[in-house]
Write a structure and sequence with these properties.
6-stranded mixed beta sheet; alpha+beta; Glutamine synthetase family protein; magnesium
Length: about 450
């Protein structure tokens, strides 16, 4: 706490946001005056870890957490201390780790799941390196859920109607918003790099510098809050839905992954001559073999599976290839030390802690079990047969059958995740869509 205490005093902080990432990757927590934060333990009900995205509690609640709805202990991570640049008074935001009452890391905390996976790498003398790329849409304020989403008005007074991939002028339409976003990111120490205009209308992508997986997950978690807040200040919304509009591409959270030796800091994916080695091939093989079982962590919501559509810039099968953006697993051109694999399966709607943990878990299992990959794919992979799950229910069935998920994440977490996501799926299934009313009402 000495480091945190000094930082709070240096910045004259009046209030602290005690944050915990929930299952959806959103912030739960409490506001605490600084003097109380420094003198009292922080706690939250552990039941918040088993809430669905609609705010309901799963039927298995009493099997997963204490039926008495007891508190869990929160421990602040000094590496996650940041200013809240949009608060009216000097405010800090600090991400906390969750512990049970007996002092053990809480098995249903999503941040702990990533730490569990990273510990397995550490035991082998390895350290993963990741670099996320996060896509999102800026959209006009939408107060009616039945109304279709659309792009907001830009500086020109007009809205986008055509594809504007990598357009500088199209991105500049939203320059005031982007400038505020970058200012907020800088104030929080987020390692954001380049921004591009993606192919969707008012769709952007921000790249993060490569680094430690836990720190990058914290940054993506913080970045999502930042972008939403920035958009609201300009009278619009920002959304990380995987597929917010039917005629526009989905939004992804691509993950570049490499692994270095803890002692030498050398990339373990290449040999002494800079050539790809067995470890790299096994990592790719693991991604192919285990991604179906872990896919619900990369595509966590009912909407996520709308993104896996041919001709919409999203993967639909488990192929890999060299510098091939039509495959789900891409090996970018790089130097030997930068040898890495890009995972293009995760949607922007994922919990960054779980998506990074799942992706690294698949590669780890591939290296441990020496899983050989298929041959690299040549050409346009979007023409191939769709082999990814197309529904949340299918993905959860694959998770139940995946022994690797229970091994890497723990049986209790897998049970909790499955219970939450099955409840969400059943909730969604009760809603009759406009498509059904349009085409089935009088025609069947």
């Amino acid at each position: 706490m000495d480091k945190i205490t000094s930082w709070l005093a240096e910045h004259d902080i009046a209030e602290v946001e005690c944050l915990v990432p929930d299952m959806s990757g959103n912030a739960r927590g409490k506001f605490t005056p600084t003097d109380k934060f420094l003198t009292q333990d922080s706690r939250l009900p552990e039941s918040i870890l088993v809430q669905t995205v609609t705010g309901d509690y799963v039927d298995e609640h009493n099997e997963l957490v204490d039926p008495a709805d007891t508190d869990m202990l929160l421990v602040p991570d000094p590496d996650s201390v940041r200013l809240n640049p949009w608060a009216n008074d000097p405010t800090a935001q600090i991400i906390h780790d969750c512990y049970t009452r007996d002092g053990q890391p809480h098995p249903i905390s999503t941040r702990n799941i990533l730490k569990f996976v990273l510990e397995k790498y550490k035991e082998k003398g390895w350290k993963p390196i990741v670099a996320p790329e996060v896509e999102f849409y800026l959209i006009k304020r939408n107060l009616d859920p039945d109304e279709k989403l659309s792009a907001p008005v830009g500086r020109s007074g007009r809205t986008e109607k055509t594809r504007q991939s990598y357009s500088i002028d199209a991105a500049n339409e939203y320059e005031p918003i982007i400038e505020d976003m970058y200012n907020f990111c800088e104030a929080q120490g987020l390692d954001v790099d380049t921004l591009i205009h993606e192919s969707g209308t008012a769709q952007m992508e921000i790249n993060f510098l490569h680094g430690d997986p836990l720190q990058l997950a914290d940054q993506v978690f913080t970045f999502k809050r930042t972008v939403r807040e920035t958009a609201l200040r300009h009278g619009i919304y920002a959304t990380f839905m995987a597929k917010p509009m039917e005629d526009e591409p989905g939004s992804a959270l691509h993950l570049h992954q490499s692994v270095v030796d803890l002692k030498t800091e050398k990339n373990i994916f290449v040999d002494d001559h800079g050539n790809e080695n067995d470890s790299f091939m096994y990592f790719i093989g693991g991604m192919q073999e285990y991604t179906p079982g872990f896919i619900s962590f990369l595509a966590p919501n009912v909407n996520s599976y709308r993104r896996f559509t041919p001709e919409m810039a999203a993967p639909t099968s488990l192929h890999w290839g060299y510098d091939n953006r039509t495959t789900g697993l891409r090996v970018p051109d790089s130097s030997p030390q930068g040898k890495r694999l890009e995972n293009r399966f995760p949607g922007a709607d994922c919990n960054p802690y779980l998506a990074i943990a799942a992706s690294l878990a698949c590669g780890y299992l591939g290296m441990i079990n020496k899983v050989a990959p298929s041959a690299p794919y040549q050409g346009d992979c979007s023409k191939e047969t769709i082999t990814l799950p197309r529904t949340q229910e299918h993905a959860l069935n694959l998770l139940t059958e995946c022994e690797g998920a229970a091994e890497m994440f723990g049986k209790k977490f897998v049970k909790a995740w499955s219970a939450i996501k099955r409840d969400e799926y059943e909730e969604f299934n009760r809603v009759i869509s406009s498509w059904e009313r349009e085409y089935l009402l009088l025609n069947v």
